[in-house]
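Thread title: Can someone regenerate the structure for this chain?

I was given the following input by a collaborator and told the matching structure tokens would be attached. They weren't. Posting the sequence so someone can regenerate them.
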Amino acid sequence: MNAGSVIYLTGFMGSGKNTVGERLAVRLGLPFIDVDRTIEERHRLTIAEIFDTQGEAAFRQIETDAIRALSNLREGVIALGGGAFVQPGNLELIQNHGVTIWLDCPLHLIRKRLSKAAHRPLARDPERLAHLYEHRRLAYARADFRVEIVGDDPDEAAGRILLLLPQETETMQISRRDLALLLPAFAVKEASAQEAAIPSTAAKFEDLPVKVSGANKSRQVINGSTHSGYHVDMHITELPPGGAPHPPHHHVHEEMIMIQEGTMEVTISGKTTKLGPGSTAYIASNEEHGWKNAGSTKALYFVIALGRDKA
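Best answer:
Regenerated them for you:
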């Protein structure tokens, strides 16, 4: 990794930002900075003590000041606090300064890791913890890259991050801005090594194979990686009156739907809209959503799911 490279790790508390960040920094030959530890050393108080004595609002200002002070850093791996990426002012500072990587750790693993973490003030209430986890995912999804955490091996996670990063050569000189532009290309290279890009195609509706699930029918159009490195899943679904493809849920990839026949009720983040033929809906990453046939005849609609991981 060249000089001028700054990598920010974001994610929920307990996702492994420090342990993964330390391994990553060693392997890249870069300094490692833990923002929370920097704050504690500067103020001679733990994060929990700052929360308890000064309140969360005061802590967030201290956190922003610490992140701003690090904006002069030319290279390094920086582990952010779990709430840092949620603050709009912090987000602008971070995204203008380096490349951001979200360590996406499942809640059950977070709970396991935090079960004995009494020093984390926001982890004391299990219900609030779950609410914060869901709320913050919307902010974390704005990171440049997402790395799924599937276990407790920080070296494995650091290794998968390294696959996204260009390797230094004696003749390559890369600025931070160049790094941000090049990372997607290396992500494409990794994806193409695992799965060949889908070719251009045109298909007649009647020629598409039908998959039946109960009273629902679906036709797969395409499903695979594109030449630009994204995973795309396009299918056509037919629902009977009152039918729904699945319960309300959320996921990292984004979805677009277009109604061809019938009347659909589409609910996004608790807001329900009734849509007819020709109507469309877009669901952003990690927004809870669901839909059903709200009419008295069949409903037919197209779905396009797009993301960096399989839908």
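The CA atoms of residues 264 and 293 lie 5 Å apart.
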